[in-house]
Amino acid sequence: MRERTHPRLVGPESGLVARVGPQQYTFREGALDDLSSILDEGGYRSLALVHGDIGVGKARPYLPDPGERGVEVLDVPFGGECTLEEAERIARLLVEADVNAVLAVGGGKVLDTAKAAALRAGDLPLVLVPTLASNCAPWACLSVMYEPDGTPIGHEIHPTQAKALLVEPRILLDSPLATLRAGIGDTLAKWYECAGGLRAAPASDLCVGLATHAARQCRDILLEDGAQALADMGNGTASAQWRRVVQVVIMTAGLVGSFGGSFGRATGAHAVHDGISVLPSQARTPHGTKVAYGTLVQLALEDRWQEVDELDPVHDALGLPCTLEDLRVTEPREAAVRTIARVATLPGKTIHNLPFPVTARDVERAIDALEDHEAARAKGRTSTPIPTGGHPHG
Questions:
Q1: Do 292 and 311 touch, CB atoms closer than 8 A?
Q2: The pTM is what?
Q3: Partners of 199 in the beta sheet?
Q4: Nearest 5 degrees, angle CA 381-CA 278-CA 339?
Q5: How far, in whole angstroms, is CA 276 from its chain's centroid?
Q6: Which of 83, 141, 196, 322 keeps 20 to 30 A from 15, CA to CA?
Q7: How many CA atoms are closer than 13 Å to the CA of 227, on its beta-carbon side?
Q8: What pLDDT digit, counting tens, does each position of 210-235 carry?
Q9: Distances in whole angstroms, Cα of residue 328 to Cα of each of 90, 119, 332, 353
Q10: How many CB atoms within 10 Å of residue 179?
Q11: Residue 173's Cα: distance from chain center in Å?
């Protein structure tokens, strides 16, 4: 029986600590076939399958059956939210069954919960199979934790990485188009959130150079290929552009924090996301969609209006929000802005990673200025929707 681990939520790190990512990363058709050799090489005779219902259904046609290799499988359905309680519940199941390893199949919250549970159950070996390309959760050595109502409460950093990350493109191509759109929004933020911190990092540290290169790729590849990738996915085509964008969202975005440490962590955009997330109207809005709006708020906060003007047409083309109306915020604007600003600036929020003090009133002014800016632009604005080609998930 493995010794239990009791991690805790952490605040902003200081200094440069690199946590690079999974021991094995495979992105190709047939990637899940590697599970058989991983089980054999590790000598694992029992396995917990932690999964979301929809995701595991999409993955099953490509997953080898561990039972055919004499491996006992404990089925562990995900409870629906990545909470401390859910991680503990699953950890207890893993300990009681005394499993040798964990296979997690699903979206970011499923994988984050499985990572947290595997750590609590004695740092069990972990194989991750993402079914969505909506963020870098499959890569990151951490879990973002929430309240049961979906309110973000912080993150746990893991001392070890996953044993393997297996990405089957055919699963991701069959996922909802909106999830990749949100993934692009989340990943674009990497450059705009982290550029300042990476510039402030020790230039002599080669990890900083790698993190900066990864952040720049997040911006450049998505600006070049993002719209085409969405159009191709809408048509059910796994084009070269789509494959590049998917890998940027899952892997390259993860490398920013992996190599950049505290200098490559989130700042304003993700804090604004946290504020938006407590609005009842935003309960089902994807993470990356809220982060995309938060990126524009951060740029407004920093008076980087030229970059707002550069990003606006990109957001239009990608179907990402530029205004609270685009987010479909139904609460009265003044109250919504106050709530977003208050939550975004709570102690411990990532907005305090910016190199200047930020108050709730500062965020309110930034949101109001952005909304006024977008209202003025809208007078001559034309919409450029991306065709979905009749894809059932578009």
A1: no
A2: 0.89
A3: none
A4: 75
A5: 16
A6: 83
A7: 13
A8: 888 999 999 999 999 999 999 999 99
A9: 35, 38, 11, 28
A10: 24
A11: 18
Q: What is the mean pLDDT of residues 21-29?
A: 95
Q: Residue 383: is it exposed, middle or buried by C-beta count within 10 angstroms (0-12/13-18/19+)? A: exposed
Rounded-to-integer distance, Cα 269 and Cα 276, Å: 11
The C-alpha atoms of residue 47 and residue 336 are separated, in whole angstroms, by 45
Identity at 308, one-letter amino acid code? V
Q: Among candidates 25, 253, 246, which has minimal Cα distance to 136?
A: 253
Alpha helices in 50-176, H assignment, sequence order = 53-59, 84-97, 108-120, 169-173
pLDDT digits (tens, 9 = 90+) for 322-332: 999 999 999 99
**Buried-exposed string 312-337: b where 16+ CB fall within 10 A, e elsewhere:** bebbbbbbbbbbbebbebeeeeeebb
**Residue with tokens 């290169």, as numbered in its chain:** 213
Strand pairing category for 126-130 and 46-51: unpaired
Say if strands 25-27 and 72-77 run parallel, antiparallel, or are unpaired.
unpaired
Amino acid 112 reads D
User: How many other C-beta atoms lie within 10 A of the C-beta of residue 379?
Assistant: 6
Nearest by Cα to 113 from 100, 128, 98, 101: 128
Q: How far apart are the first and last CA of the chain?
A: 46
Q: For CA atoms 359, 363, 365, 366, give the dihedral sign.
A: positive
Q: Identify any residues that bridge with 76 across adjacent strands, giving them in sequence order.
A: 50
Nearest in space to 187 (alpha carbons), one of 125, 108, 109, 134: 134
Residues whose CB falls within 8 Å of the CB of residue 238, separated by 6 or more in sequence, listed in order:
169, 170, 173, 232
